[in-house]
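Note to self: the last two entries modelled the partners one at a time, which told us nothing about the interface. This time every component goes in together.
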Amino acid sequence: MTRAEAEALDRDDPLAAFRERFVVDDDALIYADGNSLGRLPRETAARLHRRVDEWGSRLVRAWPDWIDLPLEVGDALAAGVLGARPGEVLVSDSTTVNLFKLASAARELRPGAIVTDAGNFPTDRYVFQGLGGVVQFETDPIDGPTPEDVAHAIDGRDVSLVSLSHVAYRSGALADLRAITAVAHEAGALVLWDLSHSAGAVPVELDASGADLAVGCTYKYLNAGPGAPSFLYVRGELQSALRSPIWGWFGQRDQFAMGPAYDPVAGIGKFLAGTPPVLDLAAVEVGVSLVAEAGILALREKSVALTELAVRLHDERLAPLGLELGSPREPERRGAHVSVRHLDAWRICRAAIERAGLVPDFRAPDSIRLGFPPLYTRFVDVWDAVERLARLVETGEYLEVDPGTSRVT
Amino acid sequence: MTRAEAEALDRDDPLAAFRERFVVDDDALIYADGNSLGRLPRETAARLHRRVDEWGSRLVRAWPDWIDLPLEVGDALAAGVLGARPGEVLVSDSTTVNLFKLASAARELRPGAIVTDAGNFPTDRYVFQGLGGVVQFETDPIDGPTPEDVAHAIDGRDVSLVSLSHVAYRSGALADLRAITAVAHEAGALVLWDLSHSAGAVPVELDASGADLAVGCTYKYLNAGPGAPSFLYVRGELQSALRSPIWGWFGQRDQFAMGPAYDPVAGIGKFLAGTPPVLDLAAVEVGVSLVAEAGILALREKSVALTELAVRLHDERLAPLGLELGSPREPERRGAHVSVRHLDAWRICRAAIERAGLVPDFRAPDSIRLGFPPLYTRFVDVWDAVERLARLVETGEYLEVDPGTSRVT
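The predicted structure of the combined assembly is written out below.
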């Protein structure tokens, strides 16, 4: 596979023009970490600026236009990205806080254990540990949790909630959302999916899958910026039975009556807590609209082609150098990033950033993650990423890099 | 009191120049609702733009510079506004979520009732109701909670936490933070202050007062924009004994080791949950630095003069028209807003906004709040605000306004 062949794939890419919709001020840099922090859409600065102007000129009089933004942006996300219905999604608070709200609500409705996998994202595991009664099961570190793993972990227990990541943050394994949901339901448990690494990269189809609950972040494949607010989903039929553990005034019926007793609204809005982040929601609107415009099926098709290329190039260039594929080989079992493993992964990542114009990321203990968000990643970027990694390893240049002490991101 | 006399006060105002630091694109508009949503500082758009640019160009490589922002902005707020020490304040999440974290933490450490006043801000009351075991006591609707009220409400009970607003949202009553804290401590309870209506307007002196815990919002007198993140304070000596109910990865020691078990950091950072809102924190930085630059004592001095003028003008112009002062008369018992009461307050507020170029706000059932943030409010604004209200009432013009059905803000 030559670089020219990768260039040919880019010429045939029907989504190629979307790269122009993002700020790319250094075309020589290969950014392979959009799975951690997505790129800045060109439109975002202007949209933020307009909202800031609105604050400056309309002041508090703009609140009637802002107050429903968490639900309006949620509806756009539901329709364009998540396969959900209007009134099932809202955007506010962080993924961690939303995990806490929904897992607490599930536990209140159905007491019992929370089942998750030991390889789930840290904040998910920590939130569940804080709630108590967690059953953590081991999975294959590459293939991630299977329906059989979940059935085995449930094992006749009283289970309140099964919660997993749709795409595993380390290996990129794509869980079988529909089958695992069915296994959990057979055991009488609710299911809470963390879509942080799949929303915007993989079709989700929350409604069709029967999923009960979901959360996810908007700063990865939805490109809404560092610390952008998270979304949560509650299946319409469940909304009346569940309640948030955080009783806040933005969930209150007739909010500005400021009445004596908490009396939440009937719909998804009951899972709001405090005042939503109005400026940030402008960035989420832009990010969601770009994914919706490209279309999640087209994005997935390109994403599979990108990761297939990465796996093929891994086999050609990296495997002979002693690296191992840390992601599933079957494209239908993978999200939009590919991990490669090496005992000195941390130092190779530092060297890539400092010397090779390549930004991957490191995930302990031995993974180099290469994220290829289909909205703006070119096939030639995949080719260059693998080639730059290969050269760092085959020349031993990565050994010259000071590993330092800080391991932020 | 003539308008010319108010103009003379502005000429002598040592803080007058700070008004130029804010966007004021309609000088004829009297904005008397900065106690709900503060004005836009001129510097904010540029600072946000710089941070957005940083996202666009540095991408994930900027995270090492962003990751401590909640604590760095917290330290600036501690030193410049709250009378607290470094490492006692952080900025992230909403006021509601922060109330939930700290009240839950207090309950875990000291089981017992949560004592609050029935006139406290709704989200505070709702959060406490959600935690259960609330004792709500009545207070004078104008003077707010006194130390005697709190002692009476405690009444030999096992009390975990006393939580009040430092400045009452409706009447503007300023509670005696030090004396009430002492009463609560005598009963073995912790104290959680909501500083939403005092931070940036009134000296707080958290450390000197002996207060244990505090939260507050940054979009009122700190001018950080709609839905800007909230702050929380935990006295240094208490940090090791308390823990957040929301176990999130941003509170985790050696966060990027992504270890199996939650193991929070020792300091204030343990009260972080999810990824902090990096863009928003730029706006908080600007807002905090303006208050710190003006100086909280100078701001308070001007604020007292502004509200004294408002009370005097109320007596001259509004009382004869049947309105009543809804705030304490003694300046040392008031925050930075003044409420006036009228049975048709809602319609008068609508008429003020739609016909008189005056933006007050309405608080159910009968209060018209006039907020006078000292950073940008002129004495002549106070004069004009009262005069415009008086004319609406004396002409009966407010009766021509459709009260509508929506009561947002």
